[in-house]
């Protein structure tokens, strides 16, 4: 009997406790989001918490990074309290509900956030299929049902993201654009500062653009995958990405496949975090002082540039390599192949103290070749390449053109033509 009473007491008190924790979590998330980035702000008002649920309203303010202009959107939310967590259901305000109903007459989009007491949150966005036609202009938009999900755990240090969009078609009097089978899966793990680890895959089955008077352009089987891992006991990170495109079709002629690999190795974690933070602060300063005190903005930008320079020095001093170990693009006249890599050695403590310029000991190599017929059949490309051939920077090898280069001692040697480079920072 005593045990049953205790269970009953916990069950009765749980929704109230969950509601209290949910309110605190939401206020904390709002503050963290507003502090972490300058582009949009969350504002919560009228949080009315009851025993089994709560209601609140708010505003999302988005700032244009180019002009500094702000656009605000109101929202409402209904919260249901459970024993171990809450479900927050977001809806547009009544004045926008009628406009949403015009686009989604049968079923409206739904955005929910499910929270758990142990720090896990699951956000889900479901957008039903829609078909809209403008009788006056003849423009139409058809979109299949789409779904997005993000599961955040570890108090915000881990995230699993999934997006699935089967497709959409946009039609106009002179243009038709279709998209088929877009997918995104990504896992993220926070390391330190603004540095995240993880892996992800993005794919698009087809993108087709047909404009009146122009040949139809189609891209088939686009994909991009990447992974970022840590090394040296968390002091450095390695990252690699692969982008592929199976086929491009233009004017009923197809060519492919295309492939590009990118690698970044040995990046110092602390310097990289300092660099990204300084760049974010510079952007925030430009937005916050837009139309204000130009002298204050200049001072903030100079301080951010100084931090960026120091971070770049740290990246170079600890050594890294970056580039594209494989570039392969198919053309109707043959493949374009290449490799571009840049490295900087790790320096000793004495060498770091004497280091005055970023990239002073940078080395690299460049090797790109293309079919001669491509240049001959493309007048615009031929006009750009012809001066390079005349200068000896591009050489002909049989039926192909090739450009080779090396970087060392702040000088770029391209097929025997040495180009001095200015000091960087």
From TrEMBL:
It comes from Marinobacter algicola DG893. It comes from the Bacteria. This is Probable membrane protein YdgA-like protein.
